[in-house]
Amino acid sequence: MPTIFVSHGSPLIAVEEDAIKTFLQSYGSKLKPKACLVISAHWETIDLMVSGAEHPDLIYDFYGFPEALYEIKYPVSGEPELAHKVSELVGAKVDDSRGLDHGAWVVMKMLFPDADVPVVQLSISSGHDAEWHYKLGKKLRQLREEGYLVVASGGLVHNLRTLQWNNKKAPVSSWSKKFLNAFETMLFEQGALSVLNPNSFPSGERAVPTMDHYTPFFVAAGAGGELKAKKIYDDWHYGTLSMQIYEWK
Fold first, then answer.
1. Which of 42, 63, 218, 228 would suit a FRET pair with 188, their CA atoms being 20 to 30 Å apart?
2. Edge to edge, what strands does the sheet with 49-51 contain?
3. DSSP-based three-state secondary structure for 174
């Protein structure tokens, strides 16, 4: 299986038509994983946790959005066997009651709309940096060889205070472009270990005000092993919200 990092964007994407939804549905239709391990920006714990529920609920962890968002269902199964395997690989504690946050279920619903691929979610650690998460990802590499799909969900440019919420297709800001261009130049030339610090790039503090959406990228990169990242989808929403997808295959 490949490993992918998906920029999950706004929760509204779950109820709107968008090119990324079309892309991910097509992408997912070509894959037949045993199950998916999702690492989302929206489950951040001090010690690593992994979801072990057989039938995980959806967590509607957002506020002030249209009612239709809170009515979405995605009756996907969990995979306790994978949860315990992940627990052994990385030392995560199994949480048998944890549901799927929107960083997980919005992406999975686009990839596998029929909810026919089991999902397990692994948290990120608030107490560790990007390099630690890269090493965490390396511990997950064997899952790919065993037929599991590793999906990281976040966003490389993610500053909600800069979004033009009234215009989803607003022109992309120059500072956002400069940041991502510098990031990708280093990533594609020198690899993930060269882009650990967002503040080494133009407008880094503005593009990455907190590390939660940036960190999952490095779990995916680590799980990709020696493979090079490839950008397979490129778009922006609301002027500054990056919607890129990267693959290690």
1. 42
2. 93-95, 49-51, 119-125, 36-45, 149-154, 3-7, 245-248, 230-233
3. helix
β-strand pairing of 245-248 with 230-233: antiparallel
Question: Between 130-139 and 216-223, two packed helices, what is the crossing angle to 10 degrees?
Answer: 40
Q: Is the dihedral of CA 152, 171, 64, 158 positive or negative?
A: positive
Q: What's the half-sphere exposure (Cβ side, CA atoms, 13 Å) at 137?
A: 31
Domain residue extents for the chain: 3-248
Are the C-beta atoms of residues 210 and 146 closer than 8 Å to each other? no
> Long-range contacts for 163-171 (Cβ within 8 Å, ≥24 apart)?
163/237, 163/238, 163/239, 163/240, 163/241, 164/238, 164/239, 164/240, 165/238, 167/238, 167/239, 168/237, 168/238, 169/237, 170/238, 170/239, 171/239
Count of all residues that appear for the chain in the document: 249
Q: What are 73's two structure tokens?
A: 């269902």
Cβ neighbours of residue 47 closer than 8 Å, sequence gap 6 or more: 92, 93, 125, 127
* β-strand pairing of 36-45 with 245-248: unpaired
Q: Which residue has the tokens 């909600």?
A: 160
Give this prediction's pTM. Answer: 0.97
Structure tokens, 17: 């038509």
So what's the pLDDT on residue 226? Answer: 86
CATH fold of 3-248 reads Protocatechuate 4,5-dioxygenase; Chain B (3.40.830)
Which helix or strand (DSSP H or E) is residue 86 part of? helix 80-90
